[in-house]
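yo

u said u wanted the structure for the complex thing, so here. seqs first:
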Amino acid sequence: MINDTAAPLRAGRTLRLSQAAIAFYLLTGTAWLIIASLFWWLNTAQAFAPNARYAFAGVPWLTYGRVWPAFTNTFVFGWASLTGLGVALYFVSRLSRLSWRAGVMILTAGIIWNLSLVLGLWHVLGGGSTGRELLEINPSISFGLFLAAVLIITWLLVEFWAYRNELRSVPLWYLMAALLCFIWVFTTGQVIVNSWHTGGPTQPAIQSWYVNGLYQLWLVPLALGAAYILIPEGVQRPVYSLALARIGFWGYGAIAVWAGLFSFLGGPFPAWMQTVTIVANVLLILPVLALFANFHRTLNGRYGLAGPNLPLRFAVTGFFLFVAATFWSAFVSFRTVDFIFHFTLGMEARWTLLLAGFVSFTLIGSVYYVLPRLLDRGWLAPGMMRLQFWLASVGVGLLALDQVVGGLVQGYGLADAKIEFSAVVDIIRPFLLVRFVAVGMLFFSYLLFGLSVLLSMCFRYSERTRTTAEPVAPVETPAEVSVA
Amino acid sequence: MSLESSEPNRPYGPEPGHPLEPSPGMFPSEAGNGPVPSWFLGVFMVAVFWTGAYLFTYSGGFDSSVFDFKPKYGAAASGPAVPPDPKEVGRKLFSANCITCHQANGQGVAGQFPPLAGSEWVNSDATNRLIGIVLKGLQGPVQVKGQAYNNAMQAWEAQYTDQQFAAILTYIRSDWGNNAPPIPAEAVKQMREQLKDRKEQWTMAELLKMPAQDVAKNAAAPPAAGQAPAPAGNAPAPQTK
Amino acid sequence: MKRFTPYLLGVLGLFLLGWLGMVYYPYMAFAELRPDRDSTTNEVTPPGLPGTAVQGFRVYAANGCVECHSQYVRDKNEGADIDRKWGNRRTVARDYMNDGDVFLGSSRLGPDLTNVGARQKDAAWYYKLLYRPTSLNAESGMPAYPWLFIKRKIAGQPSADALQLAGEDAPPPGWEVVPNNDARELVGYLRALNRTYPLPEAPEPKE
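structre next:
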């Protein structure tokens, strides 16, 4: 039996509504990625040259403090969440052979989501930001986002519960958990912080938990789910171990939810909350080691396939960035290290590795995987796509390195009270310049990605375009099987 | 444990043979039987031990009013309440009320409010007069350090408790270079009792008529037979901490 | 894990545990915070904020000051904030209990503002900084906020709070630059940022 949502289009078949809705999520998500990275690039330019005319100095709606929330909100809610929802919808449907009946609702929710985000962006740039991280959009506008998210995810869970009440594969665990957590985290942030307008020390405590929850309980499980599809698919091998997969999944879920106070270590919160956060950040290494062992054994001997196969290449690179991000956040969460790195560029390195690295890489790989299957389109210009990959990889690597080294310099400067504050700002100027260059590379990489998507929309599938991104993996030789 | 699938090998993919699916179905529906590597168990044990030790040491007893992670802070915060230093309490009370006239540096205002720093009235052993002034107030001309001052000071007896008076007086006798012994609350109590019928403020002449008496020392060291009186003024201050 | 129900209960249960610990517990614990009343002086800490300060929250938030300026002082064991004279003690939960919005911040491209109102009381200094940061410090990395000011023709007497500008910033003769309402509210808020009062749970470190 073929389900409609995940079945590939073929000549003569009309596009199902749920398929069109998923495509809408992926395409608008890609557009938001380009917009977000443009804001990001502008923001890094402003940090480097605060009073330069090319950085729009003196323009109120493009001032540093408004461009930054514009970037984070469009990146997280526009690119990562929209694309993530689309990817999750497609994969859940395909893995569980469930055809989404709620095509109209998916499309409506996507439209409401996009409209709310446009309105919210306009409002934030116009000076209506609330100043609370990732809740900057005015509550009455972000209620649209909230409504869309709750509507669609609740309905999908109900459908899943009613029609396909089984979890037959590892990625499904992650995708369903991500959808569940997203509702809970989003509700917590939107209701407790935004609607009830809880003030006092409760506000930053819950809000930092919410931000961390969006990253570690929504986007990361989502990307892990996608990685559990792209990697075995790419190497044409089943996942190495179910036991390791279980340890990774439950370990991650049990620990990540406690890691909420990361950005306010040393802040005005009881010692036990901070200590628990530190312990959680360190313990996350365990499930990530389990994941790593599992993926490594799955890939062992066939890493070479990540060359020609772009979705696999993105997924593997993204996963290594995830391992790096986990070790980095465990390292900097220790109080003696946090002493140096807190409040510096080094804190951003985690964001870079996790969001611009792991989540974005895996989602880009997923789009490369899903779009041709969904819309019967193929990829063109393989050179451009490889350039896109290299720009993104070098960009993320350079950015993370710059932030770590810059953070070290800035941190040692700040920790020495004899050095004047303005001297510390002055000394990191070169690092701000490198950051500007690195984010510029990311911007062009995302631009190329958007161009690839646009091009693929213009050409129908053919054997040539199909193998451009995903050449068929060779049949495994007996020698390879014994290695695995 | 593998996921025992009753379905054939590629149950979840799209139609077989479609050019978009040259590979035999999707693999993620399957997961192998690979064992958990043995090193993982070791890492896990170390992590459990470390977690327990770290949480025990740095959590401040899971008390939400403890903010410093260092164990010694946690112990101090939950220990018995330390009585406040009377000089510190006195400084706060002084800055809340007395500072208007006598100034933060204790120098007063020329011609109106006499200084406390180096004042013979403040540092004197005639502590009954000093306590009397703050209890009942003072008006009319007064000589301090050879200078004449003329204004009025209100009676403060209703504003403060004996402990608070003691703290203020102990403080003004110890700051700005003053170095006189502290005034215990018992001395204030004694003077309050002694002067309870007096309604009007003092004048300098009336004060000087009152026989000089170190009520502070008497109260601090209850009359013990045969104890030699300590040399005035420079006796080591009994610490009331 | 083939059945959905035990899986669902497992995920929700683990999530609930963390949520109770990191969201619900602080929510309840911080709701019980009461101001500290000094038993000898009857001084109440933290003091409430003046009305102009509350208005200034909005301007602080709208222009994203929180992206570069933090508002918490760390303990001596966790940072050099006290050595940098950004505060005489660490800040604790109770310091923020009167604030409708709390901008802790996680970056210090600009200096900490926890006690900026205690360091700098002069409103004119803030106006000058906002109008052109480089006029106070040539190396400043802070952008200028000219839209918080109005340039207008002097009608009658010059305004009392007109900016004293020199050089290229100086308005033409007969004109003046005055802060607008947003700038007044923002500076009111900044000048009210003063958490130098004592709190028993955060003693000043003894060297």
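The longest helix of chain B spans residues 38-58. Chain B is about 40% helix and 5% strand.
cya
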